[in-house]
């Protein structure tokens, strides 16, 4: 993947608005920091206890804006799955890794995406980039075209039925956060991602 090996640490501590304090979300849900990687993880990436969000489609994008720009149709986010690589990690390491997959891919069928993921040794995914990065009129327009959070959730539900672990990426404060298993929370550009289970 990337020769630069760029990575981004996304803090899981206090978030604006008081949603999370000290790693706990309201109601006592445990949170962990997330770290985005634009490449497959290396041994040193597993030294901490953070959740790794593996997003090779970030390679070449600006470090701060990359996750948010990738939600735009600037490139084929899932093309990295067609490369020649295999994800190899211990069970403990795998437990902390989720691969970013564009759930609303119109270039590949869902079954085709699942087959590519299996061939690469991937067993856990997150809908990243997410349609929930958009709000207001843009979100309404995308929603009218079938690009909505419900479609992402259906994709992840199907992935779970196919045997994948799946984390839902949603905006912090979304009613679905923490209700059905693993989630990656965001508040938009300039704010950290956090992982909750």
UniProtKB/TrEMBL annotation:
UniProt superkingdom: Bacteria
Keywords: Hydrolase, Pyruvate
InterPro entries recorded: Aldolase_TIM, Pyrv/PenolPyrv_kinase-like_dom
Keyword Hydrolase: yes
Molecular-function GO terms, alphabetical: hydrolase activity
Keyword Hydrolase included in the entry's annotation: yes
Protein's UniProt name: Phosphoenolpyruvate hydrolase-like protein
């Amino acid at each position: 993947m990337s020769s630069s090996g760029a990575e981004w640490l996304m803090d899981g501590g206090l978030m604006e608005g008081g949603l999370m304090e000290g790693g706990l979300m309201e109601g006592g849900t445990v949170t962990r920091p997330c770290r985005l990687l634009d490449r497959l993880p290396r041994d040193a990436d597993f030294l901490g206890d953070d959740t790794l969000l593996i997003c090779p489609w970030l390679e070449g994008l600006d470090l701060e804006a990359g996750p948010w720009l990738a939600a735009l149709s600037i490139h084929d986010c899932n093309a990295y799955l067609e490369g020649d690589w295999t994800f190899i990690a211990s069970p403990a390491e795998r437990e902390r890794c989720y691969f970013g997959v564009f759930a609303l891919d119109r270039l590949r069928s869902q079954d085709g995406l699942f087959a590519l993921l299996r061939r690469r040794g991937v067993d856990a995914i997150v809908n990243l980039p997410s349609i929930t990065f958009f709000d207001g009129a843009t979100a309404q327009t995308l929603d009218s075209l079938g690009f909505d959070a419900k479609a992402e959730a259906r994709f992840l539900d199907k992935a779970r039925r196919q045997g994948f672990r799946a984390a839902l990426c949603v905006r912090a404060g979304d009613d679905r956060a923490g209700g059905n298993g693993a989630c990656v929370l965001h508040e938009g550009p300039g704010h950290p991602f956090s992982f909750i289970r």
